[in-house]
Please model this.
Amino acid sequence: MRVEWSSLRLISAASLAAGSAFILAACGQKPAPAAPPAPEVGVYTVQPTAVPVVSELPGRTSAFLVAQVRARVDGIVLSREFTEGADVKAGQRLYKIDPAPYIAARNNAKATLARAQANLATQNAQVARFKVLVEGNAVSKQDYDNAIAAQGQAAADVEAGKAQLDTATINLGYTDVTAPVSGRIGLSQVTPGAYVQAGAATLMTTVQQLDPVYVDMAQSSVDGLKLRRQIDEGRLQASGANAAKVALTLEDGRAYPETGKLQFSDVSVDAGTGSITVRAIFPNKKRVLLPGMYVRASIDEGVNDKALVVPQIGVTHDAKGQPTVLVVGDDNKVALRPVTTSGTYGSNWVVESGLKPGERVVVNGVDKAKPGMAVKPVAAALPASAGSVDGAATSADAANASNAVGGVQAPAASQSSGSK
Model:
């Protein structure tokens, strides 16, 4: 009986344990599963980078010299001695105006001068004689004074005759209409047989010097003020003694092969447009640029040594259009950060505010990273054109992968390059 009772006790205990396990299973209590691993994201470490500051401005070309050839004497045009659209040299004769009236005027001036010179010789001789006679009281002092006055009048007539002859000679020279400057001549506004007038300043043709040429651009006063402020703050370095370089894009979208130099910036703001005029000068040996052409100019205004750049794939925009980035903190948690951009440089955004040097921005796996989430940062795998400012390979980023996991990633050498 004792053996049977013990056996019953063992069977009851086993049944109770089995029932308890069944009840726990029925209630849904399971062992806690292991936490999922943190997603791996590629990060880009922001470092100060030398970035050239370039302004894109619309502009119009204008000739270096423009000379309107106008009539300076009245007369009939006898001949035209140039080909329209050809290059002419300064002093080359362009038109011939009938010189006959001016030849006659010059001859008349010559005769007038000769008569005045003859009269002066007579008066000089009379003064010489009266000077001796007045000493011996042979003539009165009044007659001597009159002779001296007549001598002075005769000398003045000679000078007037010379001036008249010079005027007649100049007018005769104006019958040969010459090019005032070297350059390319335009359409002829008059033909042989036409009557031109000096009083009306009849336009005959125009000569323009096309090498070099000017490009006049309009820059907003706000951009000009921003540029000067950045230079004062030391964020931009001016080119010093060397003039700022300017590149051109032509109307057909092609780049102009020659580089220009910035000449000056106007000292006043146009009250109507709120802009200032900026002028550059370009060589134009092949005459590609013609006056009045529309171009786009890129002005190299300086270098921003402290620019922060972020690959474009790491910058997104919220519903309001505000640029944002995902930043990985020292605790490897993701935070959403709004930023302000000022433009692009290569395949990167130039960030004006919102980031600090050394911060890590998510550029690979942006869709996997959410604000507040813990991630595993590794060096970003970027194309050669986006991984660094100068387009170099990102092997330096891969070499610093271990630093990116534990803390701030060491900067790659290519990120500090200022070349395009």
In short: Helices lie at 2-26, 100-135, 141-173, 221-232, 384-387, 395-399, 401-406. The two ends are 100 Å apart (CA to CA). Residues 100-135 form the longest helix (36 residues). The CA atoms of residues 133 and 139 lie 6 Å apart.
